[in-house]
Each structure stands twice: as C-alpha cells, then as structure tokens.
Amino acid sequence: MADNARRVAVISLGGTIAMTTQTDGGATPTLSADDLVAAVPGLAETGIAVEVHDFRRLPGASLGFSDLLELAVMVATLPVDGVVITQGTDTIEETSYLLDLVTTGDKPVVITGAMRNASMAGADGPANVLASIRVAASTEARGTGSVVVFGEEIHAARWVRKTHATSPLAFTSYPGPIGYVAEDRVRITARPGKCSTIDPRSAASPAQTAIVTVGLGDDGTILQAVGDKVDGLVVAAFGAGHVPMACVDALTDLAKRMPVVLATRTGSGPVLRHTYGFPGSESDLIARGLIPASSLDPIKARILLQLLLMTAATADQISKSFNALS
Ligand code: ASP
To answer: From the CA of 165, how far away is ligand 1's center (Å)?
Structure first.
C-alpha cells in the first residue's frame, strides 16, 4: 500500500447490513465491521486503507441520541480522511441529519446500510460499502456535510428520505441526489453547504419531543394530549403548513408553553409563510407563534428541535436556528 494512501474508518452500528438469517428464520445483527469489509469484492484494488470499528450491534430502530452523540465525538477524533458509518436503514434519515448537525470540518461522513441482509440473494451491503468508502476517501466529497450513499447515489443528509420499506432503492431526496459513484469516480453535482453546528458534548439536557401528524377532521385533542407530555412539538401539517381550524386554539396554547415547529407532511417542498390567510393556514399559525420548518421534513425538524432543547437553547435561539434554514 502506498504511504500516501487515503485512509477511511468504517464504523459499524448494526442493522440489516450486519444481519444474517438465523435458523429460526429471523434476521439479527451478527456481523462485525471486519466481516462487512471482508465481504467487499474489489476493495483491496482501490488502494484505500481501511480501519474498522465495532461501535454498536443494534437494529436501527434501537439507536438513540446518546449513541449518535458519542459516535460524533469519536468521528471528530479519528485521524482519517473520511468515515463510513454502516447502520440500520430504518433510522438513517434521522441519524444522518443528526451527524450533519453535530460534526465540523470537511472530513466526509458517509452513512450507508443495506435493504437485503448478507444471507439474501442480491445482498446490497457490499456494493453500498464499496461506494461509500470511495466517497469517504474522495477529495470531491470534502465539505459536503454528512451524506447517505445508497445504490451508488449520494444524498445530502438534510434532504434524504426512506421512501420504500423493502426496495434496494429505498432512499430518495428532493431536490435530488447531490452526486453519484460510477466505476471508481465520485462525482458531486450539487453542494448544499454545511448546516449550523451543535457541539455534541453540549447536548446533555434531557428533553422529550414528538411529531404529531394532523389528519382529516382533527379537533386538537391529540395535539393537546401530546403537548402535555413534551418539551417541544413538531406538527406535520397538511400541504404548505395547514391544520384544521379546530386545532388552532390548542396550537396557540401550546406555542405559548414550548417551541412548536410547523412542518409539511407532504414529503418535499417548504412550509410557506405568507400565502394563505384562513384560520389554520401557515400565516395564521406563524402569527400565533409556531416556527416554520422551511423545507425540513417533520422527521428532520424533530432532530434539530431535540438537539437544540438538549443544549438548553432559548426560545429565541430555537426560532433563529429554524429561520436560518434555506
Ligand atoms: N430494515 C432495517 C435495515 O434495513 C432494519 C434496521 O434498521 O436495523 O437495516
């Protein structure tokens, strides 16, 4: 290996990519980071030096904020050119954005996983790991913030969504991937820029947040009940940020007691600010103290809100952070 070989750390958190089917038929995480890397054909020929770290062996659903904050501290201290995190796809939308918010510097942080476990025909883990290592080692990906690499596409953490429960092409983003990998080349076609950064060591205060999705005929009862249990709330509203007029009183009351973020449940596009004027419209709710999430979807808006509350941010700082979003 050349002395100047690029160096990448692969950190395994578990998930389908690390799972094998057991004799009782269920898939569970059994593979180490070493096993994952050893299963990648063509890796040695890339000349990229790879070190492996077993960090957790959990399904994506059981990862928590403390796991990710500890991981972010580790990522910052590793003396490598880039980092690949392999984990369960169920929470990649959340963990990738969380890492985007708490990591600094230009070092690429690439999150990947697999939809088919290592025992299945057409297991996608090895190809995703190889493409991710190429991205993490590349100079092209420096400064793009955290990215998700899946099916050779590169997605910005803040835009990526899991939009299929089983397909190997489960990840999409709006306005689209920011690049792709073909042969041995990494091509970046858009640079979303780095988000504001939160120090992972400062996110130590306990906080409870929730997302409430409004539905046809809601009268505010559920919003009020959830609001009584949390320190901050994300409302996944209709369209460009609308709720039934019967929810307006509950939201007005909640916004006086805690940060209430207004996001769209549609999956893409921004919450508007001053287009509609009916009771329960975006302009009405913003005037009542709700904080528009811009184009952050409800899942990512909750991550930002939770981290801000964990750093004991003031109401004003929380508003400013959301208002700074493009
Ligand atoms: N279906 C998941 C995955 O693709 C399971 C998990 O998130 O652990 O990895």
So the answer is: 10
By the 8 A CB rule, do 143 and 190 touch? no
For position 3, what pLDDT does the model report?
47
Closest residue to atom 4 of ligand 1, CA basis: 89
The domain made up of 205-323 has a fold known as Rossmann fold (3.40.50)
- pLDDT(2) > 70: no
Q: Kindly list the domain boundaries of the chain, sorted by start residue.
A: 7-188, 205-323
**86 has a pLDDT exceeding 50:** yes
CB under 8 Å to 85, separation ≥6 — which residues?
A: 11, 13, 71, 75, 95, 99, 109, 110, 111, 112
pLDDT, residue 194, reads 65
In this chain, the answer to whether the domains covering 7-188 and 205-323 adopt an identical fold is yes
Ligand 1 mean position, distance from CA 123 (Å)? 13
- Tell me: the pLDDT tens digits for 223-269? 999 999 999 999 999 999 999 999 999 999 999 999 999 999 999 99
> DSSP class of residue 242?
B
Helix axes 92-102, 65-77, angle to 10 degrees: 50
Catalytic (active site) residue 89: no
Provide the token pair at 101: 């918010």
Closest Cα to atom 9, ligand 1: which residue?
88
Q: Which CATH class is domain 7-188?
A: alpha beta
Mean pLDDT of 188-196: 82
Q: Which positions ≥6 away from 295 have C-beta within 8 Å?
A: 268, 269, 270, 271, 325, 326
* Cβ(89) – ligand 1 distance below 6 Å: yes
Residues 301, 263: contact at Cβ < 8 Å? Answer: yes
